[in-house]
Q: What sequence folds into this?
């Protein structure tokens, strides 16, 4: 049986070859309507996440649970390896971020995974890179399912400390803002203002994290200062920060905020006019979310004639959603 031979050869191949073969074979099987389960069994945890993003129903929960177990084991091994020998390793998607995404994609809470990530965040002996990625994993988990009270309490009580810097310098403010994002539902007024201030930090790496976190905090508070801070990111000189600010608006961060709606629309229009095609595309998506304002809807209509097909496609999709096909 040729299929069995190919599967056997794939199992014995080195990881790079196996990854490429699995990606192609899984996609072809799914598109052709064939059973892809044997290929899915060979997929790495990060490949399962990519496949779930593409076809959410293609990956069974059992495969994700199996990947969750193996990734948890890998995270523990890497933790112990660093504590014993100072070895960090490199290459491939970070296991802590992957762990958080796997847990977030499953029904219900997975407290063991959250506890494991929280121990890394709160251990000053762990490398700063692992702390950062563990916080990112926890943020994804918290967005899908509330974290257990004891995990939240552990993150609430910790003093922000940057662990050993191995691959580069990670600012302590980056870790703190991410931690506040995980705690978004229970921040004090002063902490909310701290997140708002981080959006205006002179350090781009801090602003990059703050603009992601601000959307989480806005869902839990009606802070006007925070809404204005998000709008301010739409004038940021860095395209990646500008795009994240627009993405936050597209995802509903300012939904129902009539107090800042008109100003937000003006900022989105400014971003569209000043930005490259990727920024213009995000601006169209953000304008679609604010389409109850005539100026925002006009921007979406005008973007249908943009020079970039990506922008034109975004405009067409938004117009179809807002006014219907045709």
A:
């Amino acid at each position: 049986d040729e299929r069995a031979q190919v599967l056997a050869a794939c199992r014995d191949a080195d990881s790079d070859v196996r990854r490429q073969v699995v990606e192609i074979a899984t996609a072809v099987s799914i598109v052709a309507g064939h059973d892809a389960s044997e290929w899915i069994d060979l997929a790495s945890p990060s490949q399962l996440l990519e496949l779930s993003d593409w076809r959410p129903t293609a990956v069974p929960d059992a495969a994700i649970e199996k990947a969750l177990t193996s990734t948890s084991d890998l995270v523990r091994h890497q933790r112990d390896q660093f504590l014993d020998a100072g070895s960090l390793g490199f290459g491939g998607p970070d296991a802590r971020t992957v762990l958080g995404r796997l847990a977030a994609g499953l029904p219900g809470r997975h407290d063991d995974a959250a506890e494991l990530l929280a121990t890394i965040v709160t251990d000053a002996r762990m490398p700063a890179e692992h702390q950062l990625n563990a916080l990112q994993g926890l943020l994804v988990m918290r967005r899908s399912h509330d974290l257990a009270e004891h995990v939240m309490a552990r993150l609430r009580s910790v003093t922000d400390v940057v662990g050993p810097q191995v691959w580069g310098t990670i600012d302590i403010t980056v870790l703190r803002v991410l931690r506040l994002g995980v705690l978004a539902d229970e921040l004090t007024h002063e902490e909310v203002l701290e997140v708002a201030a981080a959006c205006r930090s002179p350090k781009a790496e801090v602003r990059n994290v703050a603009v992601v976190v601000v959307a989480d905090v806005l869902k839990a508070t009606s802070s006007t200062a925070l809404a204005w801070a998000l709008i301010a990111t739409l004038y940021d000189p860095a395209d990646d920060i500008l795009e994240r600010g627009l993405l936050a608006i597209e995802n509903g961060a300012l939904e129902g905020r009539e107090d800042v709606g008109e100003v937000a629309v003006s900022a989105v229009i400014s971003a569209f006019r000043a930005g490259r095609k990727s920024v213009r595309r995000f601006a169209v998506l953000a304008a679609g979310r604010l389409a109850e304002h005539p100026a925002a809807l006009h921007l979406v209509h005008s973007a249908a004639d943009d020079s970039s097909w990506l922008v034109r496609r975004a405009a067409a999709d938004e117009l179809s959603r807002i006014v219907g096909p045709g």
Remarks:
- The CA atoms of residues 67 and 73 lie 10 Å apart.
